[in-house]
Amino acid sequence: MKVFIKTYGCQMNVRDSEALAGMLTRSGAELTASEADADVMIFNTCSVRDQAERKAIGKITFMKKYKKLNPELIIGVIGCMAQNRGQELLDKISHLDFALGTGQLHRLTEVVEKIRRHRQQIALLEDSSEVLDAMGMHSNWQNSRPHTGMIAITRGCNRFCSYCIVPYVRGREISRKLSDIVDEAKMLAEQGVREVMLLGQNVAAYGCNGNINPPPANESPFGELLQEIARIDGIKRIRYTSPYPTFFTDKLIDIIASEPKICRNVHLPMQSGSDRILRSMNRQYTAASYLEIVNKLKNAIGEVTFSTDVIVGFPGETDEDFICTKNLMNEVGFDHAFIFKYSPRSGAKSAEWIDDVPQEVKEERNQILLKDLERRSIAGNLSCVGRTLEVMVDGVSPRNPERWSGRTSTARTVVFKYADGMKPGDLINVPIDRAGRVTLFGPGLVGADEEL
Ligand code: SAH
Ligand code: SF4
Ligand code: F3S
Description:
Bound molecules: S-adenosyl-L-homocysteine, iron/sulfur cluster, FE3-S4 cluster
Largest sheet: 6 strands, parallel
Helix content: 25-40%
Strand content: 15-25%
Strand order of the largest sheet: 2-1-3-4-5-6
Number of helices: 14
Structural class: alpha/beta
Shape: globular
């Protein structure tokens, strides 16, 4: 049985697909990258914006041609959009065989077997906490950077930001057991993984029992988890995404500052720089308190880069609100950011409000922020020229096979010449000769065509 898996959405979905691929291969299936070869097609979907849903629905609809060629073909939709609209999709798309919600992913092989034996449409959409342990196992089958590994440390979200569908499609926030996570990290290290990425909707709330308020200043169960993982010899770098800003307690900041394996790049979702908009988004900080957290991190850690998520065109966002966002982004100095145009999600609170910022204005605000971002990113890269930076080797550069690339702890991409014995996962020191828009260059490289 050959299985084709296509993944949309965030890294949580990528990690889920990885775990499912592991489960399938253990049960004897073979994975294929070709749609035409597949006996089973699985679409792991996202609902966060309308565009994400439309893309996946378009693709699934188009797969009808393969079903005509091979009536035995099994096609399933899983993940967030399946949770959101599974039954509706099964009703509308006649060639779709099953829908598995986010709490039922671990039942994939069982469902496929059932359909193989008796053709029928199946929808499994109930919430279940079993998925938490079942999805903790590991296989790196599709990972193009096998020296890195993702670990899901929490599932779900309790925050209910007013624009967001995630709490409705991923269920309540639950944390995995510390010992399970540490065992998984050890297993990855034994398999050659050197960098782990800890995943959750709010990783920094790890171990807080779903509480939406941060722990006291001198506590951080997430920080303790970071320390445990840092004790594993083979693991040289630890990344995490995404932490909710208010969970950066003094304790967590101290732990990050004193543990060099924890990477010097913080993805700190900001969403808006206007207090009025932040309040209607149900984000529990102000522009000033956000900046205070950023400054605490800068003061404690020294060199650190920040990236973020921002939404433009939220209902009621005026020019003044937007200027607050632009200014706060400049003040923090983000050199990387994901900027999203607001998309109303039925079920989320803000869908009840008028989507009153015209599409052209959303686009214009998006472009303004992107331009600022590019300027800051170039300046940040230029500030590295003349220094020697520690880089974790990723492997052959995707743009130029003669060159290799890697990343700094601050998440900057560096291109350099291969040296004998070099292998992915090594930590090397690279003197930076030159900076491009998104890439730094080691010595002896000419030409400007190798930006990553
Ligand atoms: N849990 C993560 C984010 C998950 S969704 C966090 O809180 O950081 C990823 C990003 O999508 C969000 O940070 C937000 O910027 C964006 N997003 C979520 N819902 C959206 C919507 N309805 N319209 C536009 N962007 C949205
Ligand atoms: Fe969505 Fe907010 Fe939860 Fe992030 S914290 S997943 S933006 S509800
Ligand atoms: Fe999308 Fe689900 Fe992630 S809605 S952003 S795939 S948690």
